[in-house]
Amino acid sequence: MAASRQAELHAEDYAGPADHGPRDGDGDGDVAGDREAPHDEKIAAADESVGAPPRSVQEQLSQALAELLARAAELRSKDAEVALLKADADALRAEVGELRAKAAEAEEQRVEADELRLVRTKLEESENDLLRLRTETEQVDGKITLEAADFGCTKLLIAASVLLTSGVDRVVASSVSSPTPFPRELSTGAPRGATSSCSPEVAEAVLSFFASAARSLHDRFARYKEVDEATLRHFVEHGKNAAPESSEKEKALILRRLQDDNQDDNSWSRLRGTVREPVSYFKRVDEDSNTWGKAEGVVDASAPDVLAWLWHSCTYERIFRHEKSSSGGLLKMELDVPGTRSKVMVVSTKMPGAISNRVFANWWTWAKEQNGDLVAAFTPHEDFGLGAEKQIVDTALEAEKRSVLGRLRGFYRIKTLSPNVCRVTFVLQGNLGGSFTKQAMAWALKHSLGMVKSLQDKYMRNGAKVDAEIRGAFPAPPLRRSLTSEQDALVARCLTLEKGAEGSNVVAAVGINSAAAQARAVKGSWVELKSISPFVSMSMAYTEPEGNESSIALGKAKATLDCSAKEAFAYQFASCGREKTRISREVGDRARFVSKEHTAHDFEWVLVKKMSFPLTNREFLNRFLSFKEQTGDLVIAFGALPDSTKIDYGADLKVVRGKGMGVYRFKPINNDAQCEVAFVQNLDAGGFVPERVTVAKIPQALRAVNDMQELFQRDDAIDGAKTSELASIINTSEQPYLSDEDKLIDEVGARFASLPAFKKLDSPDCFVHMSSAFKEGSSTMIGRATTMSRENMMVHVQDGGLDRNLKKINDHQNIYHVVYDLSIPTFLPRQFVSRVVWKWAAGKKELTVVADSVEHTDFPVRKEYLRASGTALYRYKQEADVGGIPQTKVTYTLQLDFGGVIPKRVQNRQGVGQLMYLSKMRKRFDRSLELDGKKRGELVKRIRRHGRDGVEYSEEEEKIVAEGKTWFKAFDGLKSKDVDMRSPQTKGKEVLPYVWDTKSRDKTRPDDLEKEIDEQPNDHNQLVFNKKQTPAAIANRDFLGRMVWKEAEGGGFVVVTVPEESMKRPANKKSVAKSDFVARAKYPSIMRISPTNGNETKLEYAIHPDFGGGVPPIVFNRYMRSNLSRVTTIQEYFTQLRGDHDKADGRALGYRLTYPDEKNKKTPSKAVAHIVKLHKGLSQLSREYPWIVAFLEEVLLGGLHRNKAVSTKLDSLSEAEARKIGKNLPGALRARKQASGGVYQWKNQNPSMVELFEKYPWVEEMVLTMGEELLKNAAWGLWFRVITGSVGSMVDLATDINVILVYFGEEGQEGYGWMMLGMVLANMGLQLGLVLLQNGKMGWGKLLREVLITVSGLKPGVDAMRVVSNAEMHEHHVLDAKMELAFTKCAEMFCESIPGCILQVTALIQGGSGGQMGTKVLSIIVSAITTGMGSAAISYDFDSDPEKRRKLPSFYGYLPDEGNARTIMYVCMVVNSALLLLLRSIGAALLMLADTKIFVAYMAGDHLLYLLQKLVRGDFLHWIPLDGMSGLACSFLERVMVKTLTDFTGVLQFRGAGEMGGAAWLWAMSLALVAPWVAVPVYFGSLTSNPTNVTAIETVLNNTDSNADAGDLQQPDNWELKQSDIWELLSYMTVLWLTAFAVFLGLMKKEYRKTFWSLETGNEWIQSYFLRGREDETKQQVFNFNKRKWKAIEPQVKEWVGRGWMRWERDKPDWFTDHWKASVPVPWVPTKGKADHKRARESERRMSFGGGERKRSIIYAAA
How far apart are CA 1155 and CA 1164, in angstroms? Predict the structure, then answer.
């Protein structure tokens, strides 16, 4: 690779384009081909793996560059005639045209046009320089050299010699390795020959001329990420091992740096405020007063990978990061020292504020220590004594002479923890030069040590996986006999707790209080506690406190873990593992870290536990030891550190020290496949904690065992092994049965067989049939449940309950014990002890399992439980397979007696719940999707065969189909905007079988009482009967309909259903008993199944139901939507079958999650888990990211929470963090008016969501859809926006009306009232004009509606509603919804708020403290604040729109992604606009009162100068696409409005080149701040010089009330305006404005600050859409603007249209509409596209004169 790289591109371009094909790494030498670049084996190997640029493209571009050189050499003529210059310019333009042609040809050869267009643009920019150059140069000579570089790159060298007319020969040169970024600064070599005063600009112009082509080459072949990965991989695999031995000097440097790390931990102090960070930061001061820093953290990468990243500081990634942090332009380079392990790195660092930048030049080397640790050390470069590299380094430092030279020394130690995890220690000492305060040094130290955190962030992986890797590499613990005496003493103290527990009886207790009392009463006994998990047993004992100890609670927990003893031991011993630390932080613990590590199995550990108020946080300091017993048990012992131990937290933590001592013992069982863990702990919480609190916390203190049980839980694997073993026994072994076993089976069978007929029960599961019976003389119900399950009988036997807590008698008999908690207050849990026996019958075709209550000594009656009884009979019968899927009929009969005083009717209801066990079993083994899929596949084959055979349809069938098609025509004349096309992504021949198979399991519903196919004469005709259960008040309904399908013309199918009567299914007569009456309903329908693109299918569904039985149509019309949901059901069915979702699926899933099945009566958040389980894509996502359900639940809850950004990477995200991210979304949505803006802001605040959306784009669409629906439905969403939007404007209007009435009520001030009223009417008139412009072509109905909305004052709220609901822009609308809202606000500010505020301030100054002073001041303040909010909202909404950021990133995007910073900036914008309005109003009022002519002259002059500069720059016409006089009038009005609004409100949006322009906006702000200060002396001077002056305002007032005296008006009673008061008020307001603006500039993204002084014109801005746009979607936007604005680039646009038209016709992009086509001139359209273009223009003409749009609409299902 090149030794030095200077990045030109921005950091966001790091991803770079993908590889465009095979690349040849062979260099071509120079252009003349006089030599060939050498290749070594490393380059050849890298080229083979990575790829190199194609030689043909290099040759073509080299040829083009050579031609350019030849062209430049021809410019030697000394003739200065203008005509010749013009001719040369024309020739150069012609050459540029040839380059355009080459660019078009290159595009056909898969060469992107962007790079060649960049060459063309650079040539055009250099035209003037070249014309000037020809008059100053004699000769230009040069050479282009291409040389092979590492990893498939090519080094490009351009050298040129320019002979100036003054006789000075100056050499210019530059080199670049493609894809190494091209240098930003062009260098000029020293002159050869005599010196001259001639500027080197001419020579640099030549180099710029050539450099544009080199830069284009670089961009074309950029492979940043790929080359970085190849560079680092080569170092890890080859470079590290092939490095030469370290020299003595290098060894000395390593040794010296390692000695700098003082191993005395007491000398290091923790940096303040860093105790909870994932990286530990320390500092110390040595004997020479040098400050050292140290950072230590775990990195999720191998040690060689980390060293490679540290060693290569000039990878593209790090160059881009350096550029981004330093705003570009700062040096970063590295030089390898040949034959050594050393290199020199030179880097410039940007310092904050006014502090000078620093530059560092360091010598680096690396080595591997004997223990395997890798070390990279560095020191100032002068310590090494460079050779040939010194000149390069000195030149680089000379170039940075403005920076202060700093000195750094330190090292990185990289210790391997597992093959892919390491611990990095970074020690650093620096001298930054200059004078630094302690605070600045502390900042610099923390900032410099941040490299470890950068490594963590770069390589961060899933914490649980990293912990597992570390556990796998954890070394085996030592035997106890190898411990030191000190260690053994601690172990002996801990083991006393364990020995005291051996052999102790466990006494049962109920409740915490009774447990504590029993433990105190019976010393040494263990009392059972209620465990937090059924898989973990917990107990406690009481010990007497010693000395100053509080009461001590001794706790014990036991469990069986589904992992090896070593794995569980390693997990628990890693007390600061990734997951444990994360959980600790989430629960709020103040500190958790290892304070000192003696060995890998002996360390000291610190925990500061957060306690609930009013308890003080607890500090625990423990020493942990691990060892292995002779028995093979692994033991962890821990005890408290001495009281004298002090811990440095880097902060003042108020804590109370607690003490703990305990033992973990891990015993291998089942060949170490599992282990038993026993944990005994003696805990003293310290302080004054009540004993009951201590005892109550014991289960939580013991939850470490529960955490391990949950972490290593492998229930499916363990249970599967056991049940497979049991199934094998049942299926293969012959079982001898005892007489009592046979007797039990016969008795239970006979007992249930003798029952009377069972009566059907309502089953919650439509696939499980339930019934009940009562034995004579008994009120206890006997329940029976039957189902057919799609699984082998053996699988069901495994699930029969035989694997629960039991005592095995033999292979076919167990004693089964279970305790049920009834979850009823004051009711005791019920204890069941049953004898369970299984036996084959009927030649192993049916298996019987019986369970009957029994008494057993192993399970005695316990007083804390109540004994219950029950009898159960299971029968499993193998049925014939269906579609290759085994079928088992399961019958479950049950009789229960819960005992106690529970009423029998309550017990009977509980019995139905117990029968649902069969439903759970069925769902566990459900294979409905698979079975339905097989049946659907068979139907597909039959349909295909049906089409091939050409089956004829009968006359009756043809009539049914024809009748059905006529139903669609009934909708043709309707207009509707509620058309919702549902397109399942599957082929029509798969949808038809789904619709046709009416008895599929997916279509079976709980209310289906009966569903049968009565007739099926052929494959396209069937008679279907369906009986439905209805609510109790309505009789049940049945439906009988003939279904016929037929292939439609043009592809697809139609399925028609018509009612039919049949003798087999006669309709019930009303004479039938009411309880048995079933009303006959009719449900005619038609579904059209039409194929679209690819695998998508369009469904159209029309119905005309008649539910019969006298139900009024108004009732079932209300349920029309739910009846139409059949289309949505089909879409969801095929969506849940596929895992490869697209954005359309994402939208469908978003709706599905937001609106779950109404019949489930579940809120959206509670239905998430069920929906995720059903859909294959979501299910796969949840397996990859288990937190997805929790995340979606929080989103759907829609609660507003404080925004807390989560920076964790996607793979490392925990459930708690995912919930936090989900809670952030509603707040972000509320902060934005549109879901797209809210989701955009939210995802950028949470980087894990950016990763998730990049990996699964459909998830972003799903979240966006959920956000849209939340905005519509949430209380803080759509209506909140509408109400606040309306109320804000109406409050302002109300205060204005109130003030108008006040003016009319005060003598002499009626004129103010009339003027205020005129302003309100003017605002209304301007808004009506906007309505006419926007809706003039939409028909009189819609226009009248918009007029009424405007006149009623509701337009701001309605506009806000349209923005929130994403109202689409109609083709005849001039503005989209957001732009219309902005124009409405601008009209209100221009006509009402600004002049009204000026007038009210004038009246206040002139009218003084007359009547209702408070009302007048309140109106002014409300107007200012409302105007400020409107101004800020315009800028905020436009900048945060993701579409605008994407399409014009150079202007939009100044708002940061962090929520708090955005809020502060919004407040600053409101304050600035409100203050500016008040300042300008005061200034304007004073000028008008002094002399109206001055005010008019100032305003008119300011506006005329603004309009004049627009005219001079050719930028007067506005971008709105209006031509002729209307365009001129609109432009004039818009320019005046924007200028006025900017002067008085400072709308930031208007700094854009399309409006004011950056420089003009800044100048307007400057004048706006100065004007009030000038107006004050003018006003008070006029009072002194001409006290009788009558202003225009006074003239109006005098004309209104001729009896008023002007003198009285000017100086009313009790009023005297003092000049000092005005000065003070202006001072406060100006300072506050400047402060708010400074805060705004400080928080905004710094790369956008240049937009405040930009000189770009509106023409250039509009043309940039085309010239800078990379996508056609961006380029096409020029047609949305006034064509005169981009006339200069019309040839390029025309060429682009001609080149892309046919491709757009083929691909149909969203923007390629008839409206857009009609805007393209006819001559620009290719011949093949003229027909479609003519049709589009004709369509637009009809729409323009047809009074509105006529849409064809059909009723569709709406999700």
Answer: 6
